[in-house]
Design brief:
With 379 residues, the protein is α+β, with helices and mostly antiparallel strands. It folds into two domains: 141 residues, Phosphorylase Kinase, domain 1; 230 residues, Transferase(Phosphotransferase) domain 1 (Transferase(Phosphotransferase), domain 1). It has 13 helices and twelve strands. Helix 6 runs antiparallel to helix 8 and helix 8 crosses helix 10.
């Protein structure tokens, strides 16, 4: 019922019209009197024309796409890296069965595509090229990035002789660096590759770009609700993109009410244990998720990994003091930024516009981080 209340004023459009809006008219179809409307619909459903870089009007059909590898999988579908045989262009393709009987799953699919279409004006939202239907699946063609931030930060924090996996397939524990003791050698605070493998200027640039994406979503009355390292992508040019909008929601009077949507370990306390005197939550809950995400990337550890089990973790989020950066390793500006994001009093937690004027953001938002990104991805 709560999800119906939340989306009463704004619902994602129906699937068929949305797919057709996302692609131009099929060549020659405007005056094809000899073709039936069903033929044209079939053409529109199984082909899409896209522009990629300098290459214009590339006609994509499923038969022309070669799967290179699987990039990930979720509850409702998989994401694959594919190459277009004719043009050589590469894409990320999300394939989702249209036979989904789950109403929530179908709503999630529609929401994801709807926001991808609307997000084309924002440089920090993953680029949407189009969608087509093939053999009962919806294929969503998106920009291909190099890495998600959860994989990226693990590469950055991993020592050269540390394997990425053990023989049993378990992720190894990351070593925690001690407070920086290299200041006497004129190493800038926050930029010591011994204590902080990801320099603070890189962290600041990434944070600024995520804030830009979230601000754009807010401008179209959308809350993401699932900010975490795996939903943020990066490429070797140092470009940051937000993705996965399946559980995003439209804000009604700046408020959302679907409390169960999202990844609970990154949820704000007021979403896990809602105050009795408050109905719904706002974008400040995503500010908390942003703070947890950036803290995790900076330190190489999820801040609540000390808890024993899932429910103990959620209890810690609601009852413990909020996590903080390790003392003595980062600048006061960065520490203050994280402290503001992770303020358990949601009424005192700042919104995106205030965070965008924070000195941590202003100092780092124009940095060139491409060299560092290439260095880490080369691992």
């Amino acid at each position: 019922m709560s999800s119906l209340i939340e989306s009463k004023k704004k619902r994602p459009p129906k699937l068929g019209p949305l797919i057709r809006e996302a692609q131009p008219e099929f060549p020659g179809s405007a005056n094809q009197n000899d073709a039936t409307s069903d033929d044209r619909d079939r053409n529109l459903e199984s082909t899409v024309k896209v522009d990629v870089g300098d290459q214009k009007d590339i006609l994509i059909t499923p038969d022309d796409l070669v799967v290179i590898k699987q990039l990930g999988h979720g509850q409702y579908g998989i994401v694959e890296k594919v190459r277009h045989k004719v043009s050589g262009c590469q894409f990320a393709v999300k394939r989702v069965p249209l036979s989904l009987g789950d109403v929530n799953a179908r709503q999630s699919l529609l929401m994801d595509v709807d926001i991808l279409v609307k997000g084309t004006k924002c440089k920090n939202i993953i680029k949407f090229y189009g969608a087509l239907i093939w053999e009962g699946d919806l294929w969503i063609l998106m920009e291909l990035m190099d890495c998600s931030l959860d994989k990226f930060y693990r590469l950055a924090h991993r020592k050269e002789n540390t394997p990425t996996e053990s023989r049993h397939g378990l992720k190894p524990e990351l070593d925690v660096a001690a407070p920086c003791s290299h200041l006497a050698q004129n190493i800038d605070l926050g930029n010591c590759d011994v204590c902080n493998p990801i320099p603070e200027k890189v962290l600041g640039f990434i944070t600024a770009d995520i804030l830009n994406a979230l601000s754009y979503l807010y401008s179209i009355k959308v809350i993401h609700r699932d900010i975490k390292p795996s939903n943020i992508l990066i490429n070797q040019l140092g470009v940051i993109k937000l993705c996965d909008f399946g559980i995003s929601g439209y804000l009604v009077n700046s408020v959302a009410r679907t409390y169960e949507a999202g990844c609970r370990p990154y949820m704000a306390p007021e979403r896990i244990d809602p105050p009795r005197d408050r109905s719904g939550y706002d974008i400040k809950s995503d500010v908390w998720s942003l703070g947890v995400t950036i803290l995790e990337i900076a330190t190489g550890r999820y801040p609540y990994n000390h808890a024993r089990g899932f429910f103990e973790q959620l209890k810690s989020i609601c009852t413990d003091k909020p996590p903080r950066l390790p003392p003595g390793r980062f600048s006061p500006e960065f520490e203050d930024f994280i402290n503001q994001c992770l303020n358990k009093d949601y009424q005192s937690r700042p919104k995106y516009d205030i965070l965008g004027t924070h000195q941590f953001i202003l100092t780092n938002k124009n940095e060139d981080i491409s060299g560092f990104i290439r260095k880490i991805l080369s691992k």
